[in-house]
Amino acid sequence: MTQADENALVEAAQCGELSAFNTLISAYQQQAYGIAYRILGDADSAADAMQDSFIKVYNRIHQFRGGSFKAWLFRVVINTCYDRMRGDRRRRAKLLDGDEILPEHDYRLIDAKPTPHEKAESSELMSMLMAEIRKLPKEQQQVLILCDLQGLAYHEAASVTGSNLGTVKSRLSRARAKMRDALTKNGVTPQAAQVRAQAQQRAQERGQYGYPVRLGAAN
Question: Where do the DSSP E strands lie in the chain?
């Protein structure tokens, strides 16, 4: 989608055209889901976070003042994911105060009990790769996901994260170095890991969203 097309759709959506908003969402939903999934590591949580993000964006579309709608959307997705993680940690902490943790509240960022979906992609390489990504500091994790897994350009990642170009490049360089070290220790070449991650990402997106997610008109 060209910037001119995006701008026209945003303007139409701000005038109340639901079809224009749905066209915008359809264009970016797979990348948005990929970002959410790589941060949260759970298919259902990623789908919920993505849907929450779309609703937030729909309700706030009049607050958008130009620039890249794609970057704005992805920034909302990232913030929503980290909000969900903080909420999960708070709920888990409350359960630890003398109560047994219920299975549905037992959230762990790394080495969680696999869901049926996760079992479907439970190759040793992917499990190790995702675990190592989630060990990165949040700022490095974001740019690695955006640039190396979702294919955003540096300037797009800068817009999404609200950082300058130099900061994005620096964070990405540090993240890649840490990932190279981690992969090498596990006997995996970084090139093979990235190719597999991107292929798995595409398969994941097709499997989770074979049809567009759309907001329906209010009754």
Answer: none
Concatenated DSSP letters of 58-123: HHTGGG--SS-HHHHHHHHHHHHHHHHHHHHHHHHHHHTTTSPPPGGG---SSSPPPPHHHHHT--
Q: Return the closest-CA partner of residue 24 out of 51, 1, 43.
A: 1
Taking Cα atoms as reference points, which of 215, 191, 216, 212 lies closest to residue 33?
Answer: 212
- 91-127 pLDDT, tens digit per residue, is 554 444 444 434 443 333 334 444 554 444 445 667 7
Q: Which amino acid is located at 172 in the chain?
A: L
The domain ranges of the chain are: 3-208
Classified by CATH at the fold level, domain 3-208 comes out as Rna Polymerase Sigma Factor; Chain: A (1.10.1740)
